[in-house]
Amino acid sequence: MSKGREGPAAGGGAAAVLLRYLREQNRPYSAQDAFGNLQREHGLGKAAVVKALEQLAQQGRVREKSYGKQKIYFADQEQLPAASDEELRSLDGEIATLSTKVQALQQSCRQMEAELKDLNGSMTTPEMAREVEELRKDCASCTEKLERIKSATNHVTPEEKEKVCSEQKLYCKEWRRRKRMATELLEAILEGYPKSKKQFFEEVGIETDEDHNITLPAAV
Asked: Which of 19, 40, 121, 152 is deepest in the core (most CB within 10 A)?
């Protein structure tokens, strides 16, 4: 930054501007922050800001704290006028009002985030249009299949169905009876057989339902 740029508020002028600014804002600033906030309005250069802040700190008019390589500056609280009880009550009221606003905004943000989550999980309009088209095709296919079934001439009558079910029950009952008889007979033989059950079945050539993954239907 050129010296001409620092001239209007250099020296004591820069210190006065910075002291007033730190007291009005009453919050900490680095030299870079103060320069960025004041350069346009007061024509301060960065070198002038750094020098003025260091002078104010040496004079005890502002406080300085170092955090690593960075320094921050803030108004000396003991030099600021004490707030009256009325001002403190007013500030407490402002804090309460702002806290209420913050809570309302946080609640609103949570609601909007939940809404956004729902929307992100929902289908888009083009996706819904494609889904509707697929459902229409499925519906048309099912309707066509139903019409073919209705128009068929080889329907099974209730009597025929009852006959088939009765025969199935009869055959399953006989299957179950014969399997029980065979099991009892084989167990009797195996009591005096010197080898394992598996070896006996292999020698005799017996195949079980389980060998062919066949399950006897449950009794109704």
From this structure: 19
